[in-house]
Structures are given as structure tokens and as C-alpha cells.
Amino acid sequence: MTIVNAPVLHPDLTPGQQRCLEALPLTGNHVVSGSPGSGKSLLAAHRAVHLALTGRPTLLLSRSNLLRQLLRDTLGGLAVLGAPVEAATVHSWIFRRFGRDAPRAEDGWFDWTALIHRAADTLGEDATPPHLVIDEGQDLSPGFYRMARLAAASVTVFADECQRLTETNSTLTEIVNALGRSTTRVEIVGNHRNTSQIASLAEHFRTGGPRPEIPFRSGSLPVVRHYSGTKDLADDIAGLAARHPRDRIGVIVNSLRTAADLMCLLERANLAREPQLYSSQASFGRYRDLDLGRPGVVIVHRASAKGLDFDTVVVADAEADSATDPTAATLRMAYYVMTTRARERLVLGWQGIRMPRHLEELDGLVESR
């Protein structure tokens, strides 16, 4: 649980974000949609604090453990004495609510039909069911929401269906239908993260939904860069860290082998700050618990990048997608997510003889090196 003495409910919110927050009733189910950079994660944390002021247990949930860490840190500056909010993963909440023997499906995820029956059988037994706030809610299946509707006092979901990277995901309409007809939908607009150049490149990969506003803030063109090998890639990352010592540099990889090799090379590069590597397979320690707020290099797998942001992003191994149809929705969503993580600078890196096909059609949007 995170408790602090000083209530700080609205730091750094834009007027539009604050209006969205204050328009959400403290009862009922709600779905808030918005494009990358619109401030969904920040609003989710504020929403959780508002709900906790009702005196009811409140959880801020995400599927990703790395996003949970970021949300936990955000809550640290928002929580109010006597109104604690906990950031947790969906997995941990399911085990807490239904026990460690919560039934699983064949894909390793939960058997939502069985859990819906369990929630229905115990309906009314919990005197204080929690408020649930879900960030990156498009990564959870409709079955989860049908269950949560029975197990929670209210459910507020922040989501963007253009970022559905998991196999068990939902569209906004599916989320609303699962939560019930009375569920309200709210949209937040604006992009407060990317430069216009980064947002324009991301627009090339967007798969659907309303066209988001291109931000006014300008910067340098994203770079498509060919690397002769992993050592060349590591040297470039080390150079970025040296030139921008106050930056948070996110290196997004598709290969765990690439992540391990990069970590070894960067640890030998005498960086000003020790590089960090996140591994979902680690149960604790330096590869599980990261400090996402400090400057320096962070290596993450693309499956864990959603919800995060960095001053500089390096997509390290675009060649991993060379055999994929460049029009495939899954590939386009992946690159939409990865490119929109960058605030100031973006590098799309590749190795090999021929540039990957999905990078060949970016003329005018990128600089090639």
C-alpha cells in the first residue's frame, strides 16, 4: 500500500485531462479511451485516488508487471492519507480474490467462465468489494470484464484498441458490452508525449480508430539505422547515453538473446549510470524491480514496453520482423506501440544485408543512416 501525508490530486494535468477526470462519477462502470500520449496512465492513477477517497478499497491494475511498477511510482506522489491505493497486476488480484488455485485455461491464462461462476456464487458476501481501475485495458479479454463486473464495486478502464498486442485482448466495444449497457464511454484527446515527427511516423503504423491529433511540438526526424552487429548497436546506445546524460533511454528488443548480449556489452562500456534490464522471467532482484524514473539505459522486451515512455527510444532489432507481411495488423500495432514510447528521439535499428520491408516505405518520415 502507498500512503503519503500531503494530498496532491491534480499536478501536471492539462485542463482537458482534469475535465475528463472530474466528469467521471464515483459510481458505475466507465471506459476512457485515448491515443498514445494522451495521458491515460496518469489519469488512471488520479482516478484511483479519487475512488479511494470514498473509503472503499481501490486497486490500480495492469497486466504488465513493469507497468505496475510505473503506476506504483506515480501513485507515490498522489495518494492521500487514509485513502490508500495499491498498484497490482491482474494476476496478483485474481489470486488474492479467488485463491492460488484459480482455474486456468489451456493457454495458461485464467478460465474466465469458471471465475465468473465463482464470482456469481459469492455475490454479496464481500461487504466491501473494491473499486478497480484498469490501465491498458485492451490487453484483457471480455471474460475478465464480465467477471470484474460481478467482483468489484465499480470498474474504470483506460484503453486504446490500436495497441492490442496480446492474444487475449478486447476492443472498446467488447469491453463496454462485457461491463454492461450502463457503462459510459469517454474519450481524451491530445498527444502530450511525442514530437510531431515521431507522431507522424507512428501514424504510418496505426491500424484503425479515429485519427489522433498531431502535436505541435517539433523535433528531429526519427532515424532508421543499419548496424553491422550487436557491438555496433551497443556503441551507438552508449554514445546516446553520453550525449544525453539526463535522458531515459529505452532499448526495445524482440529477442531475449539480443537483450542479454546488449546488457553484457553496455555493462562493459563504463556508462555514467548502470544499465537496467527487465526480464518477466525473473521473480525478484535487479532484473525484476527497476527504477524507471532515473536517467540511463533500460532494456525491455517489446511485450513489456506498453504504457512506458522514454526520452529516447531505440528499437534494436527490426530485422526480426523481416519475414512478416508489412501490412499485417499485428506488426503495425507493435510498431505503433514502440514508436509512440519516444518523447524526443527515435531510432529504428536493423542488422543484415537488406532493410526489412516494413522500414522501406518510410521516405520523408525518417532519416536513414
From TrEMBL:
Task: Specify the superkingdom.
Answer: Bacteria
Q: Which GO terms describe its molecular function?
A: 3'-5' DNA helicase activity; ATP binding; DNA binding
Record-linked Gene3D superfamilies: P-loop containing nucleotide triphosphate hydrolases (3.40.50.300)
* GO terms classed as biological process: recombinational repair
State a GO cellular component annotated for this protein: cytosol
Q: What is this protein called?
A: Uncharacterized protein
